[in-house]
Amino acid sequence: MTCSNPVTVTKQVPAYTPPQQQCTGGRVLVNGQCVCPSGTQWNGSQCVTVTPPVQKPGSPSAPQEIAESASGTGYNAQITILWTPGSGATSQDIIDPISGQVFASGLSPSTNEYTITGLYAGATVHIAVRANNSAGSTVGPYTPFVMPCPSGYTATGTECQQNIQVPGAPSAFDCSSYESSNLSTEVDLCWNIDSNVDYYLVRDNWGFGGGLNGPGANVGYTGIAHLTGLPPGSMVQAQVAGVNSAGQGPWSPIVTMYTQAASSAPSQSISAWDCSSGQPSGCIGCCFSGVPSNAAEVTIQHVDSSGNILGVLADYVQGNSVQVCGLISGGIEHWQVRAYDDSGNLVAWSNIVQSVAQ
Q1: All domains of the chain, ordered by start, with CATH?
Q2: pTM of this prediction exceeds 0.85
Q3: Separation between Cα atoms, residue 325 and residue 322, nearest integer Å
Q4: What is the tens place of the pLDDT at every residue in 254-302?
């Protein structure tokens, strides 16, 4: 079969446009290079206004610095400068016009490049070329130049300072089985120490560190917290967080631990009641009875209305009553009597009592 009237299709190919070079810090593109506009100079991060030179009659014209490049870290940083020498000079110096420091002197009048070594990374330096002859000297323009820092550091003007980030959440775990001295009244929370941490905070559901919603208690730069004075057979939930100069990091996931049950189960055999009437201002009276004969220590625990321990109001109580003072007059306090044996095991406790400080 023969096709008549063939159609010719011409594919349109767009003309290639090369990518445009992007200049930063106020520089403009001139002949394929990024340069600072007239009257300004590159300081390592941006174009800044130059200080006009002062020329005495008969002295050389001012050298014109055209480029600076820095390299190196720590105390071995260096900077290389390029310049156009001033006319009429018999010698040249490289100076810091702010501090008066002389980096090099007596350079030939045709020298147009010099490398200064032994500088501090992160330091701010001022570098200028001084042209000399018998009539005097003329200092070329200068601008502050910040010696660059490696990644993760910030220049302070004198050195490079590491960028500190808040610590991450610690990886915490129950280490009671090989750290606890009394498994029935103590649990131990352990975590991996981070060198980026200054100290750690710990909190638990028994009131240490303000409870699980509290700010936490400072346990120092350590990887373990011994949580003691707990009832046998109780559940303990605890968290840890790291703190450094940048702030506090997130709390670890809650670690649930258990104290070992006592050989004989404790009981609520103690009867307690409020006996605050007639007490001095800021005091309450705590009265009780029914302490078992095997109790070696009796404490008045400061608790919330649900029985969560907030602290100790009185310990090593003798007799069947105790006066607790130093409270806010009119304040409501909840308390509970707890009795422990010689090994620190809880053997009995009382009902929760509400008292109002006189």
Answers
A1: 51-162 (2.60.40.10), 172-258 (2.60.40.10), 267-356 (2.60.40.10)
A2: no
A3: 10
A4: 999 888 766 555 667 889 999 999 999 999 999 999 888 888 889 998 8
